[in-house]
């Protein structure tokens, strides 16, 4: 019986999450009998079922109750858990997390499934390298990265569940210690650091698992040789009709092949837990019933069969119940028990948190960010733009919105509150542009960010949250002229600025650093000698995927730096008219 339980552990998640994107018996969480949030990686298992056989839908029908189901990414899951643990209003009743470490503090926690972490390499790269099997040694992985054969992206270990587990498996390999017995002191050892750096200095980090998967997906669509072709992820993220490979197959593009690490493959346990339901007897009883339903050994076989069907697998490409212990795609390398692999589990939550602090200080790749700040005439004159300051809306000049944004993202308290923590070696440089690009205006290092924001505010401000009308254009123009060697605001030549900063990067290029060029602007490039296409071709010709371009738009959608344009540089564009846009932008820039 125990063997059967293990047999369907990995399968259960397929059915469990297929319901997440389909099953919403009500569109109002407050009107539901139970509010359930499901992790985003588990969502990748979802099939195209019509709802008749989905587990939560089945449970809802059997019990005659209404469920509200929402899918959340890593960051959102932690925010939901925080609400549940602290008893905040609007919190879900039930959380189904991708990694049991994220169930810390929840009630009634039960493990219901598992998935493993490795690297997914695009199949055309696998074929060109003649890689065999679905197991890779760490030494070979590092060698492939250093040779440039694979270009790897991963979520920051503090932001994504899969990358967090990958950090533990990497430290287990580097230290020769079982991951479950890791401590912060072991991770910090001088003897371990060179090994860890050999891995992490070659990996581009993003703010979350979705962003990492999006980078390899977009690179596969574009066919760009400078794009990322390898991602650290759960094996589950390849599977199902909403998984990475199904999306690529629909576009006629090469799929990804999964490799487990021979010496240490981390396994995460999917877990279910509840908030403190206290005296809410009806919800408490229903939550207990749901947990029992999902882990009931007597019904596992039927649920596992549903999982295979719902995931869209056919008899020829997936193991059937009773014939193997996993629904998998052998041609994609995915297996529940890969041969010749040492599976490791994470340390306990408290130890994991301390180890991740060491990751932030020692292994997170250095980021050098160069920001182009638009101070052209259109930024200093009508039409104004609307911004949200808390619950208040203000109509301000675009340069004021930009000034406020810089003050926010250089405020240590704001950064800490939003869990945006620069690494100790991170550098942030600011340049102004109009018809010309200024020399370096100011820079910040590590967490000492505030002086840079205050200096920029002294030039283009002041900004007063309560009285934004206290601002004078002529005073700002005079300060720019006097402080920046006769700098004048006459036009918008953003790609002159971008090109200048790209040339700086070329001159001092380091493959072990992530470079980000950020363009903060209200609109359209006015330079007819350096066009958007010229800037892109210059970047492409340099041929290094660790240089990203990100846009932050003020007052427009960023005509010349819209999302389609910045996506070519492995970047994206955000709106600077609200705090959430700024949070998302600087999490993307600093990688948490």
UniProtKB/TrEMBL annotation:
SUPFAM superfamilies registered for this protein in UniProt: vWA-like
Keywords: Signal
Signal peptide boundaries: 1-20
Domain of life: Bacteria
Entries under InterPro entries matching the protein: vWFA_dom_sf (IPR036465)
Entry protein name: VWFA domain-containing protein
């Amino acid at each position: 019986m125990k063997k059967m339980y293990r047999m369907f552990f990995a399968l259960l998640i397929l059915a469990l999450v297929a319901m997440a994107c389909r099953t919403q018996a009500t569109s109002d969480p407050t009107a539901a009998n139970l509010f359930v949030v499901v992790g985003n990686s588990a969502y990748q298992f979802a099939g195209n079922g019509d709802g008749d056989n989905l587990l939560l839908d089945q449970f809802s029908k059997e019990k005659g109750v209404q469920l509200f189901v929402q899918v959340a990414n890593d960051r959102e899951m932690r925010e939901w858990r925080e609400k549940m643990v602290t008893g905040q209003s609007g919190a879900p009743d039930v959380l189904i997390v991708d990694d049991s470490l994220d169930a810390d503090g929840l009630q009634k926690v039960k493990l219901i499934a598992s998935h493993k972490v490795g690297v997914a390499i695009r199949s055309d790269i696998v074929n060109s390298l003649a890689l065999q099997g679905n197991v890779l040694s760490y030494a070979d992985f590092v060698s492939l990265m250093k040779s440039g054969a694979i270009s790897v992206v991963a979520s920051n270990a503090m932001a994504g569940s899969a990358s967090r587990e990958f950090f533990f498996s990497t430290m287990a390999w580097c230290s020769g210690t079982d991951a479950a017995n890791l401590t912060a002191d072991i991770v910090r050892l001088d003897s371990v650091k060179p090994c860890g750096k050999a891995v992490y200095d070659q990996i581009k980090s993003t703010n979350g698992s979705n962003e990492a998967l999006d980078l390899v997906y977009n690179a596969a669509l574009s066919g760009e040789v400078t794009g990322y072709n390898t991602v650290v992820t759960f094996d589950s993220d390849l599977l199902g009709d909403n998984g990475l490979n199904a999306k690529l197959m629909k576009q006629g593009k090469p799929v990804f092949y999964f490799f487990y690490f021979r010496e240490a493959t981390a396994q995460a346990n999917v877990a279910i837990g509840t908030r403190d339901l206290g005296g809410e007897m009806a919800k408490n009883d229903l939550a207990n019933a749901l947990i029992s339903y999902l882990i009931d050994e007597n019904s596992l076989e039927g649920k596992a069969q549903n999982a295979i069907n719902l995931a869209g697998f056919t008899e020829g490409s997936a193991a059937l119940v009773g014939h193997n212990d996993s629904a998998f795609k052998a041609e994609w390398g995915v297996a529940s028990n890969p041969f010749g692999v040492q599976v490791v589990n994470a340390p306990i939550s408290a130890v994991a948190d301390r180890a991740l602090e060491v990751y932030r200080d020692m292994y997170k790749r250095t980021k050098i960010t160069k920001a182009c700040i638009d101070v052209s005439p259109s930024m200093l004159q009508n039409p104004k733009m609307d911004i949200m300051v808390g619950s208040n809306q203000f109509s301000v000049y675009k340069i004021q919105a930009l000034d406020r944004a810089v003050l926010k993202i250089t405020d240590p308290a704001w950064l800490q509150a939003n869990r945006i923590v620069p690494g100790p070696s991170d550098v942030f440089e600011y340049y102004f542009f109009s018809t010309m690009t200024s020399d370096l205006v100011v820079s910040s290092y590590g967490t000492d960010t505030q002086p840079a924001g205050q200096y920029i505010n002294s030039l283009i401000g002041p900004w007063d949250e309560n009285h934004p009308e206290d601002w004078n254009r002529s005073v700002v123009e005079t300060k720019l002229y006097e402080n920046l060697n006769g700098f004048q605001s006459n036009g918008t030549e953003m790609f002159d600025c971008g090109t200048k900063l790209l040339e700086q990067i070329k001159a001092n290029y380091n493959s072990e650093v992530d470079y980000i060029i950020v363009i903060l602007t209200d609109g359209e490039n006015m330079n007819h000698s350096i066009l958007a296409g010229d800037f892109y071709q210059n970047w492409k010709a340099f041929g290094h995927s660790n240089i990203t371009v990100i846009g932050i738009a003020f007052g427009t959608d960023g005509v010349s730096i819209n999302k389609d344009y910045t996506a070519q540089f492995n970047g994206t564009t955000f709106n600077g008219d609200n705090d959430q846009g700024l949070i998302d932008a600087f999490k993307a820039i600093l990688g948490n």
